[in-house]
Every structure is written in structure tokens, then in C-alpha cells.
């Protein structure tokens, strides 16, 4: 059985979200003990949530004022953000807003605000990018009980089902909320040419075979092709990007309580076109990472932390699409500051992406970004 429907994301033009009270670091972090979070950690959250609230109200000047005040006090690329990255990584078990906290989101929001003001406000995009979200009902594969079994890629055959947290309208809302900032960012970096339409396809009776590898769970190429074959032909033909969700297969035994697993990544979608495909287990959008206790991921965390993950995977795709730029000649080269181009400034990966975007990627005239990211059938 296949279920699908379409969601037009009017939020990219400034509509479609009810206004909520502005969140603050004191409100968010207070229950965990505010004193353990540095002043910059708290300020990053305060500025992000206040600026995002202003942005949603289309008060782009107010958002710009908040962001510029922050960057004036602690410039983007400053070593203080690198130090904050270490702090936030140590506190992920109690608060997950990315590393450094909200920094990637702040940089993405800054680009979005600056483009909005340059453009004059609400956008009228030239084209729609269809991002098809496929939610697979079951995953099956070996589940080890011990580290020795994991090393052998062995274990008892286990079938998992999609977490109920992603069921129905509430599940789609969780996904859409996590994408909100990234959608705005795509609109901004394509110069307002592209906005996002999300289509959801549910495959409740499909079982995705999964396996084990050194760092976690893997989906073989053949298994991926089986998923695409189960998607209705018209949706598959019209899709520019994909996001494949599958039931978590992270081992649940006590031996794995502190083991880090890769629970999301990026692969290519179906041929022809080989479009971008985000891949994640269902719990990536519902719980914190395995090594951080797998506690419920709060809504306020999800909107910030997951936008950083989406940006990370997106830039893998961009760098692979422009190999001549040598921006990822070696895997994750931005983690080694010595490998950055000489004209790049900053210290953390969000700085690298911003430098790459403004100094390399947006100047690609032969294949501009708004052309690169389109893969669906023309004339839709």
C-alpha cells in the first residue's frame, strides 16, 4: 500500500506559520541548570530565536539588527565560536542545538535575512523544487547483542517498524518544522529562483534490508533501488530531491549504550539524474544521538540542530557536484583548518560552507546553483 500527498510550503514566501512566544535561553536551558551554559551559549540561542521570530513576521530589518549586533560583538569566524563548539559538544546530553550551538542556524538565517532585504521582502520564485519524503514502514537486518557480534556484522534477524512519532499529520509537521530554515536558505542562495514543495510518500508495507558496517547501519545500493521502484512513477519522475526515512536499526543492547552510530547521511537518488537524497533513521528526528543518551529531542532543539545536519549533507552534495573546485578533495576536509583555501576565514565547518558559497559556488556561471539542484521532469 502506498500513501502520498503534497504540502506546499508557503512559509518560504513568509506565510503559513502561527506566531508563538519568542523563546529565550533562560526558558529553554533553565530546567537543565542555566549556570552550566556560558554567556555566549545563551546569547546565541537568544539571538537566534528572537531573529527567527522577527523573520517569520517578515520584520527582516528587526532580524537584521539582532544578527548584526551579535556579529559585531562576536564576529562570525571568531575563535570564540570554536571554543563554544567544545562546550556544546560536552553538553549534548542535556541540550542539543548543534555545535557550536545555533551557529550554523545563525549563519543560514543571516544569509536569508540579507537576501530578503536585498530582494525587498516576500519572494515570487521562478520555479518549484519537489522534495519527496519517503517513509519506509519496516527495516530488517542483523541486530547484534555484543560488540563481538557487531564486529562480525552478525546478530539475530530483527525487524523494526517506523516510529509512531512520524505517523500522520503530526509526523509531517515535525519534518516540515525541521526543514523550515533550510528551505529559506535554499531560496536565498538561489537568488529567490527556487522554493520547495514537499511531497510525502508512505510505504507502510515495504521492508528495507539494512546491514552493519564499522560505524553503524548501511543501506545497500540494491535496497535503495527497490525503494525507488515502489514510489509512484509520476512522483519519481517529478522529484528533484529525496529524503528517505527508515525505522531505526541501532542496536538496543547495553553494550552499545555509549557507542556512536551514524544515523543519517546523503546518497544519490534514482537514475537518471542522480539527485540528492538525504537518508536518516526515523529516530534522528525524534531522539538525540545514541552516544548522548537517546533522550527525546525537544521541538526547539530539532529546528536548530537538524538544520545544521541538513546543511552539512547538502554541502557534501555541492562539493561533489563541483569537483573542479577541490572543496572536498578529501573527506570532510573542513575539519582540518590547514586544508582550507588561503582566502577562507573562520574556524568551524559553518564558516567553511559560507566561504565556499560566497567565494566559489555562487560564481559558477556554467552551472549555477538553481540549475544544479533541479532534477525532476521539465515543464511540471
Descriptive notes:
The strands form two sheets. Strands 1, 2, 3, 4, 7, 8 and 9 form a seven-stranded mixed beta sheet that branches. A two-stranded antiparallel sheet has the order 5-6. 39% of the residues lie in helices and 18% in strands. By secondary structure, the chain is α/β, with parallel strands linked by helices. The chain has a domain of 246 residues. It is globular, with a radius of gyration of 20 Å. The protein has twelve helices and nine strands.
Percent strand equals: 15-25%
Structural class: alpha/beta
> SSE string, helix = H, strand = E?
EHHHHHEHEHEEEHHEEEHHH
Assign a percent range to the helix content.
25-40%
Q: How would the global form be characterised?
A: globular
Rg, Å, rounded: 20 Å
How many DSSP-defined strands?
A: 9
Low-confidence stretches: 7-18
Mind describing the biggest β-sheet? 7 strands, mixed
Tell me, rounded to a whole number, the average pLDDT: 88
Termini separation (Å)?
26 Å
Number of helices: 12
Indicate the topology.
Layout: E1 3-8, H1 25-29, H2 39-56, H3 60-73, H4 79-90, H5 103-119, E2 127-143, H6 147-151, E3 156-161, H7 168-189, E4 194-209, E5 211-213, E6 216-218, H8 221-230, H9 233-238, E7 241-246, E8 264-268, E9 276-281, H10 299-321, H11 349-359, H12 369-372
Parallel strand pairs: 2-4, 2-7, 7-9
Antiparallel strand pairs: 1-4, 2-3, 5-6, 8-9
Helix pairs in contact: 2-3, 2-5, 3-5, 5-7, 5-11, 7-10
Amino acid at each position: 500500500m502506498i500513501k502520498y500527498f503534497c504540502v506546499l510550503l508557503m512559509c518560504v514566501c513568509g506565510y503559513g506559520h502561527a506566531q508563538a512566544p519568542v523563546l529565550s535561553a533562560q526558558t529553554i536551558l533553565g530546567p537543565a541548570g542555566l549556570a552550566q551554559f556560558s554567556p555566549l551559549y545563551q546569547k546565541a540561542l537568544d539571538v537566534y530565536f528572537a531573529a527567527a521570530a522577527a523573520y517569520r513576521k517578515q520584520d527582516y530589518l528587526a532580524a537584521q539588527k539582532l544578527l548584526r549586533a551579535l556579529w559585531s560583538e562576536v564576529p562570525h569566524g571568531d575563535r570564540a565560536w570554536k571554543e563554544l563548539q567544545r562546550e556544546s559538544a560536552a553538553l549534548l546530553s542535556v541540550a542539543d542545538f548543534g555545535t557550536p550551538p545555533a551557529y550554523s542556524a545563525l549563519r543560514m538565517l543571516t544569509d536569508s535575512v540579507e537576501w530578503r532585504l536585498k530582494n525587498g521582502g516576500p519572494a515570487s520564485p521562478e520555479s518549484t523544487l519537489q522534495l519527496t519524503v519517503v517513509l519506509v514502514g519496516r527495516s530488517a537486518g542483523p541486530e547484534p547483542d555484543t560488540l563481538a557480534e557487531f564486529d562480525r556484522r552478525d546478530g539475530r534477524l530483527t525487524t523494526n517498524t517506523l516510529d509512531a512519532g512520524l505517523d500522520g499529520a503530526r509526523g509531517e509537521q515535525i519534518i516540515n518544522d525541521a526543514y523550515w530554515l533550510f528551505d529559506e536558505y535554499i531560496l536565498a542562495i538561489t537568488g529567490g529562483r527556487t522554493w520547495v514543495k514537499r511531497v510525502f510518500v508512505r510505504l507502510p508495507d515495504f521492508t528495507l534490508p539494512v546491514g552493519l558496517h564499522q560505524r553503524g547501519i548501511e543501506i545497500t545500493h540494491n535496497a535503495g533501488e527497490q525503494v525507488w521502484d515502489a514510489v509512484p512513477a509520476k512522483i519519481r519522475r517529478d522529484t528533484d530531491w529525496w529524503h528517505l526515512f527508515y525505522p531505526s536499526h541501532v542496536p538496543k543492547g547495553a553494550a552499545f549504550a555509549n557507542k556512536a552510530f551514524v544515523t543519517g547521511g546523503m546518497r544519490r537518488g534514482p537514475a537518471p539524474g542522480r539527485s540528492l537524497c538525504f537518508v536518516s533513521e526515523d529516530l534522528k528526528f525524534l531522539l538525540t544521538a545514541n552516544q548522548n543518551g537517546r533522550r527525546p529531542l525537544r521541538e526547539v532543539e530539532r529546528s536548530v540542530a537538524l538544520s545544521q545536519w541538513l546543511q552539512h549533507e547538502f554541502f557534501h552534495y555541492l562539493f561533489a557536484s563541483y569537483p573542479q573546485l577541490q572543496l572536498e578533495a578529501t573527506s570532510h576536509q573542513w575539519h582540518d583548518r590547514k586544508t582550507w583555501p588561503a582566502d577562507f576565514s573562520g574556524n568551524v565547518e559553518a564558516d567553511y560552507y559560507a566561504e565556499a558559497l560566497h567565494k566559489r559556488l555562487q560564481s559558477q556561471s556554467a552551472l549555477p546553483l538553481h540549475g544544479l539542484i533541479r532534477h525532476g521532469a521539465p515543464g511540471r
